[in-house]
Design a protein that fits this description.
Length: 195
């Protein structure tokens, strides 16, 4: 696994510090971080989001592990399309091809599932695409709240941009806000699809 991002299943239930959906910040918990990555040649950024979803673990994990649902939770302005014929059997080593649009540029993107731990999580890593580094860890933990049973879904994205100082400037001017917008849309769409 790349970077040791998946921490494995978190068993048991408990109360999330932010409480059920109504008590989380408008888009859940978000954290941005930045690391210099000494010797790596790329500045590494981190985006983390959490969202509590009502329902059982198998249903929620099933939704996220179906590549056919990706376009439904991605903003239309990205022109996102899965190119790999679906349905696919998700598994470690699976490669998925997509087409996205950044501004007016159509781009192809390929990710590989580097870790597959149903129903607790998976990790996908960009093999080809717009980022110098992209590692997306998806974690799922059953969690009770005062409104009932649910699942805490955590997304952790480690990413870096190409082009050195130009990439860092692009991050500050546009990329960070774009990713926040993508994950805001994703949160609202997931709420619509799964409650």
């Amino acid at each position: 696994m790349v970077g040791g991002a998946f921490r494995g299943p978190a068993h048991g239930t408990g109360s999330h510090p932010g409480g059920p959906p109504g008590r989380l910040a408008p888009w859940g918990v978000a954290a941005y971080g930045e690391q210099g990555g000494a010797g790596s040649g790329v500045r590494e950024y981190r985006l983390e989001r959490e969202q509590w979803i009502p329902g059982d673990l198998d249903r929620v994990f099933g939704f996220f592990s179906d590549a056919g649902n990706l376009a439904d939770i991605t903003p239309p302005w990205m022109g996102f399309r899965v190119l790999t014929p679906t349905p696919v059997e998700m598994r470690e080593g699976l490669r998925l091809d997509y087409r996205i649009r950044l501004a007016i540029l159509p781009l192809r993107w390929r990710t590989q599932v580097t870790e597959w731990k149903p129903p607790y999580g998976f990790v996908d890593v960009q093999e080809r695409g717009p980022f110098k580094l992209w590692e997306h860890t998806h974690r799922f933990r059953p969690m009770k709240s005062e409104v009932g049973e649910g699942v805490l879904v955590t997304d952790v994205v480690r990413y870096g941009l190409p082009l050195g100082p130009i990439g860092r400037l692009a991050h500050g001017l546009a990329v960070r806000a774009m990713l926040a917008s993508v994950f805001d849309y994703r949160r609202a769409s997931i709420r619509n699809w799964l409650g």
